[in-house]
Amino acid sequence: MGPWPFEDKRPEALLDFIDYCESVDIDSLWLSDRIVSPTVTLDPVTFMAYMASRMRNMKLGTSALVLPIRNPVILAKELATLDFLSDGRLLLVVGLGSDESRDFEATGVPREERGKRTDEAIVLMRKLWREENVTFEGKFNSVKELTLLPRPYQKEGPPIWVGGRSNAALRRAGRLGDGWLVSRATPQEVSQGIEAIRGYAASAGREVAEDHYGAFIPFFFARSPEKALDNAKESTRFRPDISPDGYCALGPPEQVRRKLQEYIDAGATKFVMRPSGPGKTWYEQIKMLASEVIRPLQTPFSKEERLVRTGMIH
Q1: How many helices (H) and strands (E) does the chain have?
Q2: Among 13, 68, 210, 217, which residue is least crowded by beta carbons within 10 Å?
Q3: Which of 203, 204, 199, 131 has its CA nearest to residue 170?
């Protein structure tokens, strides 16, 4: 979730919606990350910790956690604790933050350092999750004989996916990432990005799993794409360089399914979907997503083996 979507600002409004998502077999809830915002936004780590004790089946993800503005030792401890307490339901996507974000100014982190800080933090957090008596000397962080307990529930720690569609993000995903989640990218851009990441990973002597490529897709069900777009304009930030129908799923259910199939054909297997309309429409939109898209596109495997996941709500 990004900014608070409902007119009702009480916590109960959000909790009721999340309970409903779990009741219709939505796979996971995803949270964006913004410290300085003109609208109500929740801290993702705090909110995930609260929801992990409330939900029994849904997973919890960040899309994307702005890594360079956080102390990686403290964050590694927080996320390990969260993964431990939730029986491994943490899904972690990290990014550098948007260019217009004021979070860097607010946290005293120079914007020009965000790439190097992110790379170093990924390496350090993995070591803290996997090793004992960690000694690490980096440009921005230094630890000596440090052991963090408890260990994450997931063996070797939560996989760290990288967000972004820039060339630098693709390189980072290939060199350091366990996966890639891209926002507002066309199927062609997804295909090109996957190919680039494979190349960067091969150059680094590593591989990214074939089912670890995903796409964030704004969606809205309506009788026509035009009607859907009218509703989406109220709450969606569109790219200035490409028409929304290039990277949004808008219109009747068959058209939404067809758009997702384009991404599947491009190599994506995980989808984070965000209702792109006013909060009062979200219940109906989620109901249609569950019945008209998730179930028809699911493979016949179990939840643990499922290759294509379409039920991830942002």
Answers
A1: 11, 11
A2: 210
A3: 199
Which distant-in-sequence residues (6+ apart) come within 8 Å of 121 by Cβ? Answer: 67, 68, 70, 72, 75, 94, 140, 141
- Residues making up the chain, counted from first to last: 314
Q: What span, in angstroms and rounded, lies between the C-alpha atoms of 314 and 258?
A: 20
What amino acid is encoded at 251 in this protein?
Answer: G
Q: Is the preceding omega at residue 150 within 30 degrees of 0, hence cis?
A: yes
CB 271 within 8 A of CB 309: yes
- pTM metric for this prediction: 0.93
Q: Where are the alpha helices (DSSP H) in the chain?
A: 11-23, 44-52, 72-85, 103-107, 114-130, 167-175, 187-203, 225-232, 253-266, 282-288, 295-297
Percent with pLDDT over 90 in the chain: 84
Task: State both tokens at 196.
Answer: 């680039």
How is 10-29 classified by DSSP, letter by letter? SHHHHHHHHHHHHHTT--EE
Encode pLDDT of 66-107 as tens digits: 999 999 999 999 999 999 999 999 999 999 998 889 999 999
All structural domains of the chain, each given as residue ranges with its CATH number in brackets, are: 1-31+159-314 (3.20.20.30), 32-148 (3.20.20.30)
pLDDT in tens, 282-296: 999 999 999 999 888
Contact (CB, 8 A) for 6 and 14: yes
Backbone φ and ψ of 134, nearest 5°: -75, 130
Which residue matches tokens 């307990």? 149
